[in-house]
Amino acid sequence: MNISKNKIIIFTRYNNKSASVRYRFLQYKNILESNNFTFRLSPLFDNKFFLNKVILNKLNFFSVFYSYIKRFIILLSIDKNSLVLIHLELFPYLPCFGERILNIRKIKTIIDLDDAIYLQYKDNKNYFVNFFLANKFSKMFKLDNIIFSGNEYNKKKSIELGSKKVYILPTVIPVKKYKKLSFLKKQDNFTIVWIGSPSTAIYLIEIYDALYELCNYHNIKLRLIGAGEISLPGIQYESFRWDESTEIKLISECHLGIMPLPNNNWAKGKCGFKLIQYMACRLPSIASPVGVNNDIIDHNINGYLANNKKEWEKHILDLKDDKLKFNKFSEEAYNKVLKKYSYESWNKFFLSTIINESKN
């Protein structure tokens, strides 16, 4: 295949308001275009839909129907010489007919997994969803596709479900973008920060008792970014709506990032992106020892892994009370991201993999 004619089209669920879209695809746009690829992002839903669905939990079914029809038309019009990247799946809550169409047309396809999406239908409580879609990803992964997996757990599960070629591609960040703001003046009170979406804010309940103790009896503040309407009775916290233009500043003003998770298979499939953001802002992190968290955090070096209320409280107070340890962890956290989870350390691998697969 002549690389000068390569086209790459990326099918995502959402547009650039989604962190996955920005950090797993859009940040590679320039390097792809400078290497003779034409880059096209094709989101299923626009930013208005994203804000209504993810932030406000409102769903417009007419918009869903229209978006599916539009995607199907685009799918049929793809040039056979294109390389297709699919974030998770083409048509949520439908069988994998879209992926089959690409397979039949022999269009090179890469499926990108930064979540344990293959569990979505298998564990679904709706009988009809479970009956018709439980094996969707098993069927999809057995097609002639390539997988980009955000972590080792998703790689292992993809292979178990039939994938034959899987590359590890963590969610990485442009460290240079974070560097200047990472030295912002901290809040006067020791401040814990959590960033995410309303759907994942429920994980804060996992450490509610520890947060209650810390915020009420140890002069610690809690800052939430993107959490929406979450109930944490008896805990005073400041809550900010997520915005790309302010997220780095809001994180950098804090002292410590947290990522509590339940110990289940869905959580094991997560890519730990919030930890990477905290660490790029020179914040030590404390997280549940679940999935990729165990790889990102080096316990007692750049953060802590906490199993229970006692450990959460102890580790947070350790970093609050020991300035030397806090400063050491902060630098270790930044250095870990710079070496292991930065765009600068992964962009060549991404580009070379795309070029090689487009030639095969």
Report on this structure.
This protein has helices spanning 19-24, 29-33, 47-55, 61-76, 97-104, 127-133, 136-141, 152-160, 175-179, 208-217, 247-252, 265-268, 273-280, 293-296, 309-321, 323-340, 343-359, and strands spanning 7-12, 38-43, 82-87, 109-113, 146-149, 166-168, 191-195, 221-225, 238-240, 256-259, 285-287, 303-305. The protein has 360 residues and is an alpha/beta fold. A 6-stranded parallel β-sheet has the order 2-1-3-4-5-6, with helices on both faces. A 6-stranded parallel β-sheet has the order 9-8-7-10-11-12, sandwiched between helices. Strand 3 (82-87), helix 5 and strand 4 form a beta-alpha-beta unit.
Question: How would you summarize the topology of this molecule?
Answer:
Layout: E1 7-12, H1 19-24, H2 29-33, E2 38-43, H3 47-55, H4 61-76, E3 82-87, H5 97-104, E4 109-113, H6 127-133, H7 136-141, E5 146-149, H8 152-160, E6 166-168, H9 175-179, E7 191-195, H10 208-217, E8 221-225, E9 238-240, H11 247-252, E10 256-259, H12 265-268, H13 273-280, E11 285-287, H14 293-296, E12 303-305, H15 309-321, H16 323-340, H17 343-359
Parallel strand pairs: 1-2, 1-3, 3-4, 4-5, 5-6, 7-8, 7-10, 8-9, 10-11, 11-12
Terminal Cα span: 8 Å
Identify the CATH class of the largest domain: Alpha Beta
- What radius of gyration results from the CA coordinates? 21 Å
Tell me the quaternary state. single chain
Report strand order across the widest sheet.
Answer: 2-1-3-4-5-6
Shape: globular
Annotated CATH architecture of the largest domain: 3-Layer(aba) Sandwich
Q: Label the structural class.
A: alpha/beta
The helical percent reads: 40-55%
**Total discrete domains:** 2
Instruction: Report the biggest beta sheet as strand number plus sense, adding barrel if it closes.
Output: 6 strands, parallel
* Average pLDDT metric: 91
Helix and strand element order? EHHEHHEHEHHEHEHEHEEHEHHEHEHHH
- CATH topology tier name of the largest domain: Rossmann fold
What is the CATH superfamily label of the largest domain? Answer: Glycogen Phosphorylase B
Strands, count: 12
Stretches with pLDDT under 50, minimum 5 residues: none
What proportion of the residues form beta strands (DSSP E)?
Answer: 5-15%
Q: Given the structure, what is the number of helices? A: 17
